[in-house]
């Protein structure tokens, strides 16, 4: 996973990087220097650098002053930036249960973002989504991943516990809305053996009954599909001004997509793949058929 830069008291860098990137774009468009921006908010040049790289939390007065200096006249733009700053400050202050996770930094960052999200759309090629995993499946998966970063049994126990605790968001006072599309291969891959997979497939049918969960399967017979390149997750937030962020995994890293244009492209990919997938009722029939075969 990507290495997380340890600067400031950051819990999640995603919102900070997006906010800093927007301020940098506005400064460049206004043809202003970092030193000029620093003078406006009575700060040092290095503080502007840290702000534009998302390394430090930002104060609303500084954002307002910089936007005025950059000639921002669209009130909606300012509102979006202030909302990003508020969300980012909340993430930095949060003392979430996930902070003791043995996961690499990028995954810990993802869990923090998931905890703040109100809606998740996830596409999975070869694995059951973490929010739906049984303890047996999660343990078998952690053990198989243990040939890399996780070989200590205590770490594996903590990984399983964290994956189970994430599922608390599926119920309670603020249930997370989850829309998952899973390729049929993920349902047939024997993670932990036949019995573990039978239990896992049964769990999928259970969670699909929740009002806040929508689960569809992309069957083999659907043929080619738009999301063949790899899994990804789109996280959405309650505030209207908050832009979706996307987390996409590759073999060697975890990538964050942090702008509206790119996240819109991922939403389009997800929607197109969902349209090729079975309806939820038919998906449940396929899941039960596979479970019986095991």
What does this structure look like?
- It is a single chain.
- By secondary structure, the chain is an alpha/beta fold.
- Helix content is 50%, strand content 11%.
- Helix 1 runs antiparallel to helix 5 (75-93), helix 2 crosses helix 3 and helix 10 runs antiparallel to helix 12 (280-293).
- Residues 1-12 have low confidence and may be disordered.
Q: Would you give the CATH topology of the largest domain?
A: Endonuclease, Chain A
Number of domains: 2
Q: How many individual helices? A: 12
Which CATH class of the largest domain is shown? Alpha Beta
CATH architecture of the largest domain: 2-Layer Sandwich
Q: Give me the count of strands.
A: 6
Helix content: 40-55%
Distance between the termini: 33 Å
Overall geometry: elongated
Main sheet: strands, sense, barrel: 6 strands, mixed
> What is the element string, with H for helices and E for strands?
HHHHHHEHHEHHEEEEHH
Give the low-confidence spans: 1-12
